[in-house]
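Batch 3, record 17
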Amino acid sequence: MKLGHITGRLAVALLAVGMMTAAHAELTIAYITNGNTNEGWTLINGGAKEAGKKAGVKFIELAAEKGELSKQLAIVEDMITRHVDAIAIAPVDSAGIAPAVKRALAAGIPVVAVDTNITGANVTSYVATDNIKAANVQGSWAAEQIKDGDKVVYVTGDQGQSTGQERKKGFIDALKAKHPHVKIIEVSTTWDQTQAQNGVESALRANNDIKLIACAWDGGALGAVAAMKGYGIRAGEIKLAGFDGSPGGLDMMKQGWQQANAAQMLAKIGATGVETAIAAAKKQKVEARIDTGAFLVLPSNVDKFAKDSGVAQFMKMK
Amino acid sequence: MKTLTRQEWYGALVAVLVLGIFLSIASPYFLNSRNLSNILVQASVIALLAGGQTFVILTGGVDLAVGSLTALAGAMAGYMMIKLGIDPYMAILAAFAIGAGVGLFNGYLVAFVGIPSFIVTLGGLTLWRGLAYDSTGGFDMSGLPDPFPFIGYGELFGFLPMPIVVMAVFYITMSFVLSSTKLGRYVYAIGSNEMGARQVGINVRWYKLGVYVVSGLCCALAALVLIGRMDSSSGKIAQMFELDAIAAVILGGTSLFGGRGSIIGSLLGAILITMIRNGMNLLEISQFKQMMAIGAVVIIAVWIDVVRRKRLLRK
Amino acid sequence: MNTEKSVIEIRGLTKHYGGVKALTEANFCLAPGEHAAIVGDNGAGKSTFVRLITGVESPNSGEIFLDGKSVTFDSPLDARDQGVETVYQTLALAEDLDVPANIFLGREKVLFNLGPLSILDHKAMRSESVQMLSTTGVKIQDMSETLRGMSGGQRQCVAIARAAGFAKKLIILDEPTAALGIQETARVEEIIKGLKQRGVPLIIISHNLRQVFDLVDRIWVFRQGRIVASVLKTQTSPEQIVGLITGAVNPDDVPGATDLITDIALFQ
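Prediction for the assembled complex:
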């Protein structure tokens, strides 16, 4: 009995460490994700992996199980032990990861924040879409579609978060710059699709002269489409601008519901994050803030964008 | 004379040693004082939860709510300090009060109302998590005041990380409570033969209530170490920690059927789980394979427990 | 009958559950050092009687005297504290604890009394356990082994040694050998004979007449919720006892069988 007991546990231990990779390279880069496995993160992580492969470095990809902060903390600590040359990390929590990141920096390991910034630690670089600039692109496009004084609906993201605040500010600033008298009806959400749908429904009921709807993210656009369908509005009657360049957003464009989408360069976020980490590991000077830019997707270029960005693999409308 | 091999935690000790030897060979980064100290620090929170869980499981119950209660105690303490500006020591007291209060609630429903612990704490799993989010408004609280940076990252005498100190003092105390006090003795007696315990005059209800309070207090202590380590707090911390805590107890040789087991085994179990994660991180094994490995380890440990119990019953 | 001389004396003990007369006007006594058996068919009132004199239930009427003093039992613990130790069929042992822990279960010796956190006096309990076991004649090789590793007979012996060690007045054994094999039964019977030699008063509930005749001095027969006969082992035979149990023999036809019972009734 005792023997079975021990051999059982031993077998598990062996299984646990059974698949080692033993490639040898000059530089070792740890890419630590937040454990999200949705389409957006699959694209970001794919870009990161590709960049690591291209640069010929030893690329370690680890994820915080179930998006649990303390597990990500442990991974960072283990990577310090592992003496990696640089860390690229998508933090689970901006503030919570700071203590471990500080220790990595103190140990001389450069740390690049990917997509989400880290507060409370001076990271080597922060690579992400500049939300204000991307929202400017969305706002400028909207400005071209309407006349001054027209009514526009804006579906916000969570205004308790910097991402939501920045996207709203970028959109409104660009729109008002051209049409100072435009009427903006705000639909407030906390990144919730149902809230978006309900809000847009009320806006449609109260106003019959809405020219355009813009959304802080593609999920909100899905809610807006549902509201329009419920109201008997056909695709294209009211112009719709999405944000993210997500598969769902581009699908809506192919179906004629969306006329523009401020797409984040998801794969590029991952790739640039890792490239920046490699540069920092080589002691090259890197920018403290790197904007991976946004791309205005229109019906004329949607297919090419979908293919180039890799989003096409997740789309329903080919 | 009790021999070493007769102890329930012997298997866990062997597993820790074997895995340790294997990892020392497999990774050049494993066997150094820095990494070993890291493992103990990383194991501390789970070990504290496993300590309380040991009491519950020894009585034949289970506490599925420890992760959520840790989040509630940690989030509330953080909220009080950061958002309300309450003195940190008052916040620490409040965390323990929350732990004890929830423990009383769980214990009352299990021991006095007679609802199975599985149900009470499964409900608590979402109840306390929801309350943790709701009562703190979903905020992230960061930059905790003293003494939290010391609890999380301080070093006693300049070399002993505080989480390890807390864990060591905790385990020495709990080990004594379990082996040498009435509470400890009755925990085993109740798990072994609840009706018999009642017949010899043990106040089974109150002692059962007591183990859930112990577990709740352990959650509060774990929460304080955890938020210290993260220098921040929110309602989303300690996700699924109950599984790691229960796994640590079972890996440590404590029987899910109650009555048999030891506190030292739970410490070894927590270290074993942490070592597996640490080793796989060092060997660059992905998240999904890590999840599979931990799950497999737990199933096998329970399997061993069931087989062992069947053999004992056959005697 | 001289009440002062009885270890326990019971007068007119009655328990009715609604219309069910579980026990009616039961009279009973046990002399110092005496071993008595309680026999009867299933449903004859034995279990009710035992539950009443061990404090599990309270009687509707009737009195219990311990050493001549009228007592009432609020709970099994109360009965135990007043000197009546019972070994239940379920034994009330914790299989995962060792022998000393089981012997002192529920009445641990402590170094400091801190409520639930009272610190146990392992040494004292261990040495007293060794004492108790050897007095009772129970042999245990390894005191630190848990009961899980022991046979049913060994466990029964531990339970009896515990009762004997703590009993201030008498011990009640409920079917002590019902679940045991022949060898183990013999072992337990040896222990009971040892108690007889030491003069520990004892009541045994048993279905096994061979055992009853082997162990006790006096036999009390229960029938249809009443105690119908009380006879000395030396003045009766197994056949007669069977007859009394089934009703084939009228207690009035057995010389002296109702003497004690009517004697006690006179005191009421």
